[in-house]
Amino acid sequence: MVQTKKARSRRRFDWLPFLLILPTALVLLVVQVYPALYTAVLSVQERQRAGWEFVGLKNFDILLSSRALGESAGHTIIFLVGYASLTLTLAFIVALLLNRKSRLSGVYITALFIPWILADIIAGVVFRLLVLPDYGLFSGILQNPALFPPRGLSVLTADAARPWFGDFPFPPSPAMIYLILAASWRALPFITLLLLAALQTVSNEVIESSRIDGASAWQTIRHITVPLILPTMVVALFNLTLGGINGVGMVFSLTGGGPGTSTTVLSYLLYSIGWGSLDFGRAAALALMLLVINLTLIAGTLRITRVQQRSG
What is the pTM of this model? Predict the structure, then answer.
């Protein structure tokens, strides 16, 4: 009789974990699953006067054959390479300096974290105000013909140089370079703290042993520090790549995709197609393409992490 009551009580509480996560599951269903499914439905439809009409893969065909997609993909590659490499390099250098544990390390970390609390839109507006030709803080330097001949430099309106490799947009325009600098400044605090946490797990005994053996500071960093924190650096690179592909706030408020289309990355192209042209079918198709890119990056990062764990 006692065993029967225990069995009934167990059956009664088997649903308890599912009931506890039910509110969260419902929220995720409303804000993530439903929009994703609705995007997939919109990607194969086109808005007509009579309503939505099924067009199959027409939206994908239009995108893949358009010049705008190729240009924005090239701009995205340039932005990601510059943004990720610059941010990761600066974050690693700053993390090494902060890891020395001076008296003011806490103050430095607090000051470093200030850019991270700003929204992308706000950061973009601030950086835009810095280079406005008439009253920007750096306008006097940028518009000096002696430094930037022949008539000075207008960052937000200067055209890009002639491409070196066919239609691939390299070298980038001054606006793209400035966008990379602004985005790196915005992401630097989080990546720095991430690498700093990893550096603090490196044993001081290992570092001291390498110095006793005659290794220089550069050799210690290259052969000991970097390999030990490599998994964290992979995570940081993954975070930067995903943020760079999907972020649109900085582009929207700083350059608006210009001058021309020189800073129109894939995320901003998605915004301009959807809300600029009100072509939600093509925008949904582009969103699915970005989804495939994101899933590929996630799968690649997980695979690299597993290989590193096995080798470690």
Answer: 0.87
